[in-house]
Amino acid sequence: MKRRAVVAGGTGLIGKALVKQLLSDPQYNSITLILRRFIGITDPKLEQKVIDFDLLESIDIDLKDADVFCTLGTTIKKAKTQENFKKVDYHYPLVLGKMAKKQGAKQLLIVTAMGASSTSSIFYNRVKGEIEEALRELNLPILKIFRPSLLLGDRGEFRMGEGMTAALSGLFTPLLLGPLRKYRPIKGEVVARGMIAAAKKDDHGVHTYESNEIAELS
Fold first, then answer.
1. Helix, strand, or coil here: 200?
2. Which of 13, 72, 101, 148 could form a disulfide with 188 if both were Cys (CB 3.0 to 4.6 A apart)?
3. Rg (CA), the chain
4. What is each CA distance from 41 to 21, 22, 36, 45, 69, in whole angstroms?
5. Sorting pLDDT into bands at 50, 70 and 90, what band is 168?
6. What is the pLDDT of residues 92-142, one digit of tens each?
């Protein structure tokens, strides 16, 4: 049976890898991207919808029976304010979730973060936890949440803090065994591959994958 994918946010580290892998996957015959700007890829299976995400609810897009992937996300540095950050990491994914519910999407798969918790004292982790809870409350037929640890890969931009952390983590990764495996850095392409593998399971309910479990799926 052929599958349809809708991807919100296909220009980030995970999103780009996800689009590339979906296009090469014979089980997916249609991939629709919801983006702020066109990406330099053309393919018979690919449709790009460039939108203002503030108007997400009003776009004409068919989500029925689709695997809906959400890789939207920003940083405080880019967003400038906590309000803008929450718009991208909470409001837009929640609107997408409500659209998926209303239109009868097969499932919603979203990337949050390791340590996501609505009670966290860290703003970033708290918002990630809040969107997880809000999406659970929608009672989607299938909701899959992915919590990667430090992401490795070419983001197309320089982030000094992440670069230094990634370099240091290479020294300690071999020591992260057993229950500490979820703290190992993970490549964006591995997360994307894990998301697609999870999507194909079609198992109902809410499923949360920590970073080591994403790597195992991949």
1. coil
2. 13
3. 17
4. 13, 13, 15, 11, 18
5. very low
6. 999 999 999 999 999 999 999 999 999 999 999 999 999 999 999 999 999
Phi, psi of 167 (to 5 degrees): -65, -45
pLDDT one-digit tens code per residue, 33-70: 999 999 988 999 999 999 999 999 999 999 999 999 99
With tokens 């997880």, the residue in question is 132
What Å distances lie between residue 174 and 5, 168, 171, CA to CA? 36, 12, 7
Q: Give the fold, CATH level 3, of 3-217.
A: Rossmann fold (3.40.50)
Residue 26 is classified by DSSP as T
Q: Which of 143, 65, 139, 70 is closest to 106 using CA atoms?
A: 65
Q: Are 208 and 194 in contact (CB under 8 A)?
A: no
Q: What confidence score (pLDDT) does residue 183 get?
A: 67
DSSP E strands, 67-218: 67-70, 107-111, 142-147, 151-152, 186-187, 205-210
CB contact set of 144 (below 8 Å; sequence gap of 6+): 107, 108, 109, 110, 195, 198, 199, 206, 207, 208, 209
The helix (run of H) or strand (run of E) holding residue 156 is none
* 171 to 87, 184, 191: CA distances (angstroms): 36, 11, 22
Residue 67: CB atoms within 10 A of its CB come to 28
